[in-house]
């Protein structure tokens, strides 16, 4: 029998290892920076054991943010810019990975794989684009080959495409990691991530995979951040200082919650393609609130994020489940306070209570998806496609 070529042999060798070291990369719609999680894994599937070894978020410079925002969630963009940024982001992320490894005194040769989410620039589920001849679609850029070649590390990327090819909407992919890392026999749990968009996973106490539910809920930080930049020249509302200084405008809040998305049955996905500045402006026009104090806009948008989560929880999930929150929204005191008041019978904590760093959670989940791509088998969870995700890019 002919020997495998060196790349396939390398892949086989990693898959057969009793333990693997992998890096998860996450760059969200908020464009704060690149989350880099170095993890060790033994096993796969429901037998996965994961340990976070190192974590860092390396902030993006303002120029990088503005370049990505020039094409992010826009229906018409400069195609040359998309092409250039696809390669540039892959190379730039590779540089940041090597910087992190040097700081941790870890040699690239010691790392078995990188699992990269890439940078979403457009998410287009059919429920949003409503074009009968086209399927669900989503586009993440930051080419995996550039990451692999520049770091010398096997790279797994473009995870969402397989899930959509098998009939899903490409999000939220947190489902798989939440099930593997967050389930506990005898305890109903809800794992909420408040990033640019809010999503949650319900994990039933009896471990019945058919009952697991994972869905996007609505806007997380994306609208709050957008209007903080527009009105106050701030990247975000630190410590909810602006939100606490204003008042919730109930007419605007009701208008924001009027979209049919909130009545659609889960699971469902959404993004800044829907929940953006134009969405808020139209809600203000409908409610006659176009000229309210900017502080009240921030307060109302913060309440919008929290109320959407609370409404979804009450409508679709069993009472008595424990809620664990991660993402930037977990550090927003106004959002968390509003959520606790609306769900006053629900125990709410951040995912640190589960031993999961709430800042690192999404990067850890992509590292876990990389481990599954190498050593796992497809899992059937609820109505979600039973597939392994990710495309392999070899270093040589």
Q: Average pLDDT, to the nearest integer?
A: 95
CATH class of the largest domain: Alpha Beta
CATH topology term of the largest domain: Nucleotidyltransferase, domain 5
Low-confidence stretches: none
Q: What's the number of structural domains?
A: 2
CATH superfamily of the largest domain: ATPase, nucleotide binding domain
Tell me the β content.
Answer: 15-25%
How far is the N terminus from the C terminus? 23 Å
Q: Tell me, what's the shape?
A: globular
Helix content estimate: 25-40%
Q: How is the main sheet built?
A: 7 strands, mixed
Count of extended strands? 12
Structural class: alpha/beta
Describe this structure in words.
39% of the residues lie in helices and 20% in strands. The protein has 396 residues and is an alpha/beta fold. The protein has two domains: 6-171 and 360-393, 2-Layer Sandwich (Nucleotidyltransferase, domain 5), CATH 3.30.420.40; 174-354, Nucleotidyltransferase, domain 5. Strands 1, 2, 3, 4, 5, 6 and 12 form a seven-stranded mixed sheet that branches. Strands 9-8-7-10-11 form a five-stranded mixed sheet, with helices on both faces. A hairpin with a 2-residue loop joins strand 7 (189-194) and strand 8 (197-203). Helix 10 crosses helix 11 (277-287).
Spell out the key features of this protein.
396 residues; alpha/beta; Nucleotidyltransferase, domain 5; 2 domains; 5-stranded mixed β-sheet; 12 strands; 20% strand
